[in-house]
Design brief:
This protein is an alpha/beta fold. It has a single domain (15-230, 243-249), classed as TIM Barrel (Alpha-Beta Barrel). It has helices spanning 2-6, 43-57, 75-85, 100-106, 122-127, 132-146, 164-173, 202-213; strands at residues 10-17, 61-65, 89-94, 112-116, 149-156, 178-183, 219-223, 243-249, 254-256, 269-272, 277-280, 297-299. The chain has a twelve-stranded mixed sheet. The longest helix has 15 residues, at 43-57. The two termini are 37 Å apart.
Length: 300
């Protein structure tokens, strides 16, 4: 269905939000009040969608996230299906909070564990949860012991922009391979915390200079909206590219191609869990009609 409407024939990665439920209430979370919703994929539905994406769109990788994927009771079953049955590259994006037992169980099937951090110590814990920083560092250390590659994501805000470099150094000391920096978008909980927004775009330019001038072993990937001029506009409407890097499925089955549309209910496509197929439900405000540009990432 996606190919018929847009011409897109290949989608490299599926971002699969297994559930909304989370053990955190982060100040900037794009899910907002949906964290309290019960919507979730069953393990069978998740496996069906993964199989469909492989067979119809040549998908070769999956990122499992939520909510918090490690509170999903059937995470091990989904991970094993993705790796053993489909041969996918498996990434998990987590807050890293008290995941020792589950991570030890699934480590042989995980290619990358990516932990979300928002700064050093209390800076992170203020945005996320008390004790979450130390718990995340322990998870990174355990992953290294288990032979799992690690990385991190950080959403750049007014409260943590000065801690990007210290966090990068801490992560590389723990053996992490990559730090991915996101631009804060005022949706979900972030819409209720305007104090986190960076109003001086020149701060992004200063950050990029610091990153370029600092010798780091860890790879830093930057959302190009973290610049004075913003990112170039790249859209995926009908008649656009035949291949895209990713598509995201939320716990209801709504599919989103642009990161800038995530959290805004701009879905043109849905995965029908019961019928096991993708359907097109166009609206006047969907991401195709509005030609919502995608996020552009680049290495510093």
């Amino acid at each position: 269905m996606i190919g018929e409407v847009t011409g897109i024939r290949r989608i490299r990665m599926l971002y699969l939000q297994l559930l909304y439920r989370c053990n955190f209430e982060c100040l900037h979370c794009f899910h907002g009040t949906r964290l309290q919703h019960a919507d979730a994929f069953t393990a069978e539905q998740a496996a069906n969608l993964l199989t469909l994406m492989c067979e119809e769109y040549g998908t070769e990788a999956v990122t499992l996230l939520g909510g918090e994927p490690f509170v999903y009771k059937e995470l091990a079953r989904v991970v094993r299906h993705a790796k053993q049955e489909l041969g996918l590259q498996v990434e998990i994006c987590t807050n890293g909070y008290r995941i020792v037992r589950q991570l030890t169980e699934i480590a042989p099937y995980v290619d990358l564990l990516r932990i979300s951090l928002e700064g050093i110590g209390s800076t992170n814990d203020h945005i996320r949860k008390a004790g979450s920083y130390e718990s995340a560092l322990r998870a990174l250390d355990l992953a290294r012991e288990l032979g799992v590659r690690t990385g991190a994501t950080m959403t750049v805000t007014s409260s943590n922009i000065d801690e990007v470099l210290p966090l990068a150094r801490t992560l590389q000391d723990l053996g992490a391979r990559q730090l991915k920096l996101h631009c804060l978008r005022p949706v979900g909980h972030a819409a209720n915390h305007p104090e986190l927004l960076i109003t001086d775009s020149a701060a992004y330019a200063r950050l990029r200079v610091q990153l370029q001038e600092t010798r780091l072993d860890i790879e830093v990937i930057v959302d190009e909206d973290l610049s004075e001029d913003g990112a170039p506009e790249i859209c995926t409407p009908a008649g656009g590219p035949v291949e895209i890097d990713r598509i995201e499925a939320d716990p209801r089955g709504a599919l989103t191609m642009s990161c800038k549309a995530v959290g805004k209910d701009s879905h043109a496509f849905w995965y029908d869990k019961l019928a096991d197929h993708i359907v097109h439900r166009p609206t006047a405000t969907d991401e195709l009609t509005l030609a919502v540009p995608d996020v552009v990432y680049a290495r510093v």
